[in-house]
């Protein structure tokens, strides 16, 4: 049932004559300021609830049958202890473009089945222990927030996570944040303030396929910056300040196919220091190193 774009300020009960049959409720683009808790909680079969482009300031306890909940583009500032309590069937939670600043330690305590969480474009400065209960989570979007660091074991309980986006923050340190994440495949750390990639920063990510570190402030890559990433196929290092590639920086990466290093400060590359047939992309051409070439270099223009 959709009430989208109707300038509603409240949701009158008379608009929902058969409350036991409603499975979808869409309140997109209205003027609702307060979550209609009592009314929505009577919708016992509700599976998807969307309240987008409204001005809801808080998320409060709601019906427990939901599997998908969209609160995009509202004014929610805080996720408290009981905001999402009882939503044991919830699999997708979208809070994109709100004003969420604080995540209570047990805000997600009942969401053991949650698979997708979007907290992008908020003002979150620290995730603390809030993510710990999300043992089924597979996709996490924390982009466009105010994160400055990722503490050790920040995501250690998210053992099923396959996609993590923390781009467009102000992160200067990742430490050993990515520990015990055996299923992580895609990691986006682009558009942050990382000055370097320390030794072992991404160690023990056996399934990682794609790593984005572009648009940072990286001026140094350690010899073991990408240690033990046996499944890694792509590293994006575009738009940094990297002056050189150290010996063995890309060693022991048997699946590596693409490294993007355009817009850095590299003046020379030694083909002995890169894997066989690794590809370097620049704006209009591809520089390909092969150990069999006499000079070690050959150019191929990209159409």
Topology at a glance:
Layout: E1 24-26, H1 37-40, E2 48-50, E3 68-70, E4 78-79, E5 92-94, E6 102-103, E7 116-118, E8 139-141, E9 163-165, E10 186-188, E11 196-197, E12 210-212, E13 220-221, E14 234-236, E15 258-260, E16 279-281, E17 285-288, E18 298-301
Parallel strand pairs: 1-2, 2-3, 3-5, 4-6, 5-7, 7-8, 8-9, 9-10, 10-12, 11-13, 12-14, 14-15, 15-16
Antiparallel strand pairs: 16-17, 17-18
Describe this structure in words.
This protein is mostly beta strands and 303 residues long. It has one helix and 18 strands. It has two domains: 1-144, Leucine-rich repeat, LRR (right-handed beta-alpha superhelix) (Alpha-Beta Horseshoe); 147-303, Ribonuclease Inhibitor (Leucine-rich repeat, LRR (right-handed beta-alpha superhelix)). Helices cover 1% and strands 17% of the residues. The strands form three sheets. A 14-stranded mixed β-sheet has the order 1-2-3-5-7-8-9-10-12-14-15-16-17-18, with no helix packed on it. It has a two-stranded parallel ribbon with strand order 4-6. Strands 11-13 form a two-stranded parallel sheet. Strand 16 and strand 17 form a beta hairpin. The longest helix has 4 residues, at 37-40. The radius of gyration is 23 Å and the shape is elongated. The N and C termini lie far apart (49 Å).
